[in-house]
Please model this.
Amino acid sequence: MKPIRIDERLWNTAAAPEGILEWWFRLDGARVAVGEKLAQVQIGGALHDVTSPAAGQLRILAFTGSVLDPGSVIGQVIPA
Model:
């Protein structure tokens, strides 16, 4: 199982101490591919795409509107 983690480097140029999970592009339980765009987060007014680290089944752990800290895990990809 691979965690879907928000890259801490996204905060390098942002003054905001946290981000917001804006949107999931896939539903919980969906099959996903490596590199597929899964979610979008807002950090310091900028939107960033979050991609799948592996192929498998998506398990969502954080919901739209969740406040995120650097390195937050928002989901998992379970091998199929």
